[in-house]
Amino acid sequence: MKNIFHITATILVLYCRVAFSQNATLQIDLNKEIGPMHPAWAWFGYDEPNYTYMKDGKKLLSELSALSPVPVYVRAHNLLTTGDGTPALKWGSTNAYTEDAQGNPVYDWTIVDKIFDTYVERGMKPMAQIGFMPEALSTKPQPYRHQWAPGQHYTSIYTGWTHPPKDYAKWAELVYQWVKHSVERYGKKEVESWYWELWNEPDSPYWGGTVQEYCKLYDYSVDAVRRALPTAKIGGPHVTGPAGRRGGDFLKKFLKHCVSDTNYVTGKIGTPLDFIAFHAKGAPKLVNGHVQMNMGTQLRDISTGFQIVASFPELKHLPIVIGESDPEGCAACGMKTDPQNAYRNGTMYSSYTAASFARKYALADLHQVNFKGAVSWSFEFEDQPWFYGFRDLATNGVDKPVLNVFRMFGKMSGQRVEVKGNLMYPALTVRDSSVRKTTPDVGGLAARDQRKAAVLFWNYHDDDVSAATSSVQLTLDHLPAKKVKITHYRIDSQHSNSYEVWKKMGSPANPTPEQIKELEKAGQLAKLGTPQTQTVQNNQLIITTSLERQGVGLVTLEW
Prior knowledge:
single chain; Immunoglobulin-like; 2 domains; ten-stranded mixed β-sheet; 13 helices; globular; EC 3.2.1.37; GH39_cat
């Protein structure tokens, strides 16, 4: 009996050490610059382009534009898809191209203009996706319009819009007319600042053709874009995860085509390529009744994609855009039909986003590539239940906690500086084995500008289970000031969290106008206390705070 009590006591001591003694330290050296804090996060995308100009779509786009010090890029599917513009989940249409009874092209840019006008009016930039195939051009047009809904088999969406054109010359003329129209409407200088791209995930059922047919379509598209605007930027191929054999092989074949294969249009060797794009997704699942994320899966896609690009000396300098970079693959699959997606409403999505973006920068440094942006494939869904668990930034016009991470990123500028931490997982550890140890990943990303600095920090773990709050000590070295103004921002259960407020209301299906105002306020980025001015001793400043599991903090310093 004595031995049993001894063993029990030992287990309790070990448990207490894990649960209550997670004292994290982060050391920030403002003199050790490691690279520019370029806004790789200021890119967003979504399947349903017709949401763009609807009420909540316009509201969210305005907020995204406001949170960034530089123009935000927006990527949307279905910009050439045939239809009347009625939105639906994983669907959209513009009817840009139809044909008359004699088979002559009929162009109608009305809906496309509504979409791009909404972006340009807000100072945003389209990542203009050339796709999908209009019904009149598809080699297998029927069936065309799908009726997918959450819970249905995903393959039902791949209909006539996925197939190659029956006439490549007509396709090229469509692309030429679109770019020409854009220059006439928005001006040469504006359209030069956009990124044009071809298709989406052509290594998957999104493309009903072969690799070579995609390369052929790319050659025709590039030639058409450049005929309309010789200075336009165009790239691709937006394959799925390069760490998978399918995506990786497709990316290599496409890049080889651009470098050394015969161009289908010109007959010469090579094809213009201004940027390279691929996708990267995580893989959450349910484990013993709770959500377990898998950040490592997403980071392995990114690392492999960077490595593939770096293996082409002629292309290594080109900008890389991770065209969809998310914790998993289906934004429109809500948590009721896909319970592994239950991370989306609360702070787990926030901490995952903060921790993963820091590692994207680190992997780009490792592979020495030109990392330009990572598109968060998350927007909003009109006329859907409140907090349904879509992968979105706002619900019914109310911002969710994850949006406030991007507001935090918007307060960081200048040069990234070195951060070390006793509980901060190395980037390669997260890439190779995710965050599965007993201790959480309490890490940071810091940047310094001329008269200010910012430290973003998080308390992340792949397992979404209750855990003790961690104490966090931030030590900033080489501060070039005697006094600094310090402002704390926080995302946790009590701050910047409309979801928790909604639950406390009783999770109303139809909130009252007064409740909506309260939710809108709760959805904004909140300060932790009031800003303080503090004296700096020997160019060093120590800030002690605490952070809930899955919480995110930001400290800004001005002098």
